[in-house]
From TrEMBL:
Keywords: Signal. It comes from the Eukaryota. Residues 1-19 form the signal peptide. This is Cyanovirin-N domain-containing protein. It comes from Steccherinum ochraceum.
Amino acid sequence: MRFTIIAALSLSFIPLALSAAVSDNVLSLCQSPQVVDERFIGQDKNVRLQALKCANSLIHERETSLEKRQTLPIDVCGNECDTNCFVPAGGGPDPNECHVISDALLFDSQNIGALFNITTNAAVITMTFRSCESFFVNQAGVDLQYCRTDWSTVLDFVAFNCQATQNAHGGNCVAADQRWFIQVQNSSG
């Protein structure tokens, strides 16, 4: 897995007054989100996981007709992503609290299984612990399969490398083909 840090301006998001359980940043991507699954994961069951169904399409324009015909999830484990840190500094998540999510992912990888699906019916998966929120967005238009260990690695990398000391407040890692991305930010938006 390759990480490239790219300084980026913070994405401008329009806050929506919907569910307090989901941050405004997620809501700006996922219109009228409907929680289709909510549970707590990890050894201590202290990390909230939500799977969201969006009213809008999150499909990225690079999809192929072959992918549209796929019936099985496309395995994107180990795929490269490029890291973008959101500048300026201030208001980012505590990287140690993000590491709790990372540990919960590793625990579930060992006890539930290494792979999980991000379907087109629930194209956004969020995980939250205290100040840290991370979410995976499927923009492929087809079901994807990803590794919990990879999400853990990306989460730790972004959380510890996109903070105030790097003039940042969180960031994301976008797949090279832009079919998916993982974002790390403060849980209050």
